[in-house]
Amino acid sequence: MAPTDRRRMVLGISGGIAAYKACELIRLATKAGFEVRVIMTRAATEFITPLTLRTLSNNKVVTDMFEEPERFEIEHVSLAQWADVFVVAPATANVIGKMASGIADDMLTSTVLACKSPKVIAPAMNTAMWENPITQRNIETLRDFGFIVLRTDKGQLACGDIGYGRMIPPERILQHAIRAVRRSDRWSDLRCLVTAGPTREPLDPVRFIGNRSSGKMGYAMAVELWQRGAEVTLVSGPVCLDPPEGIEVVPVSTTREMLEACAARFSSVDVAVFSAAPGDFAPADPSDSKIKKRPDAGRLVVELEQNPDIAAALGEVKRKGQITVGFAAETERLVENASSKLAAKNLDMIVANDVTAEGAGFEVDTNIASIVYRSGQVEMLDRMAKSQLAAVIADRIESLL
Fold first, then answer.
1. Last residue of a domain, which of 161, 182, 203?
2. Are residues 246 and 387 in the same domain?
3. What is the DSSP letter of 198?
4. Which of 13, 32, 121, 122 makes an SS bond possible with 89, Cβ 3.0 to 4.6 Å?
């Protein structure tokens, strides 16, 4: 979220060992622009102190349903009305069961029952409790009621067991909370395809021809569309980035593999954003074994063949109403070259950037872009974070929906 996007989160903490992770969740949420107010069950106070959470959130922490309020108001109702999103993390099997049954016997469950805002539930419990059919039934009940119940991670638990039941990391919980408050009806029924990163064209089993794309722009684009509510598939070349939460990631290596992955999904998507940097050329005859240096050879000659153009190939089968967005990494004649690609690839708009400019292009967190539209209009943007540019592009896509 942008710094001006101030949102309000009620964070409910129940009595599990994962309660300590709430500290990091509060820190990350505050940094992302949320004001956080905390409700703790009595059991939760056995694992972490209200003082710690009050210090981190800079707000009073509620632990007692019958505590005398500082001003007269029905606190569980006022907090329920105040929240833009209600997050329960960790959510124990006990609290999940209460919420699924409509039980409201403490401040946390009472406020959940009174809250009409989106509710994000991050379970945490022993593997046997997680796998118990009663727990799974309760989770499905909550989902049927519109709760966003997150999955758990597999790993070693506090009890020593290894299996599912670990609460997912706070940064991933936060992504779902952001999506809950940003979700838009205009995007909720849309399916989007995004490409990201470089491709690698093998020269031999240990060497390849590639480029300097980091994938950051494509990943930011995928996250932005997902946060708005779209179902997103990200076809990614080799990158050093963590898979985004909630997004299907299809890993590929070569340009032809990327084309195959995109072609298999293109007909079913509403929006396609081709933000990857697939290689234009590949070795015509890659070696099956490592190419050795030879003292008598001063140079190695490699014959290259042209790769298919992914956006152009899919532009030929683009259906009416489908929106496609391209990217153009250029070193000269920025708008002229981008305009030619826009027409050749049947795009609705193309995002062009001069990769030689400081603060733009590959391996940096910012970009300086110009958006060229089918009408011929050119929108020149200042340098901004790639996440901000992704939001601008998503706004422009939305205007075409």
1. 182
2. yes
3. B
4. 122
Q: Is 120 a domain residue?
A: yes
240 is catalytic: no
Q: Is the pLDDT of residue 250 over 60?
A: yes
**Which of helix, strand or coil describes residue 144?**
helix
CATH code, domain with 101: 3.40.50.1950
Q: Which residue has the tokens 């422009």?
A: 396
Looking at the DSSP bridge assignments, the partners of residue 202 are: 208
CATH code of the domain covering residue 347: 3.40.50.10300
State mean pLDDT over 4-29. Answer: 92
How far is 339 from 365, CA to CA, in rounded Å? 25
pLDDT tens-digit map of 141-160 = 999 999 999 999 998 887 78
3 pLDDT band (50/70/90 cuts)? very low
Q: What are phi and psi of 224, to 5 degrees?
A: -60, -45
pLDDT at residue 72 in the model: 45
Please check whether residue 135 lies inside any domain of the structure.
yes
Mean per-residue pLDDT of the chain? 93
For residues 381 and 389, is the Cβ–Cβ distance under 8 A?
yes
In a domain, 37, yes or no: yes
- Tell whether 1 is covered by a domain: no
**Tally of structural domains, the chain:** 2
Tell me: do 98 and 140 sit in the same domain: yes
**What integer is the mean pLDDT of 77-88?**
92
pLDDT over 60 (residue 70): no
Same domain for 252 and 139? no
For 146, the domain range is: 7-182
Read off the amino acid at residue 226.
W
Rounded average pLDDT over 54-58: 96
Per-residue pLDDT band at 4 (split at 50, 70, 90): very low
Q: Are residues 24 and 69 in the same domain?
A: yes
Beta strands in 111-240 (DSSP E): 119-123, 148-149, 153-156, 162-166, 191-196, 201-204, 207-209, 231-236
Pick the closest to residue 12 from 133, 122, 117 (CA basis): 122
pLDDT value at residue 256: 97
Q: What is the pLDDT of residue 5?
A: 62
Compute the average pLDDT of residues 81-108. Answer: 97
Alpha helices in 245-355 (DSSP H): 255-266, 310-315, 334-344
Looking at 159, 192, 240, 262, which residue is catalytic?
159
Q: Are residues 377 and 252 in the same domain?
A: yes
Angle 93-101/107-114 helices, nearest 10 degrees?
40
**Torsion region of 166: left, alpha or beta (phi above 0 gives left; psi -120 to 50 gives alpha):** beta
Tokens of 298: 């001063």
End-to-end CA separation in angstroms for the chain: 22
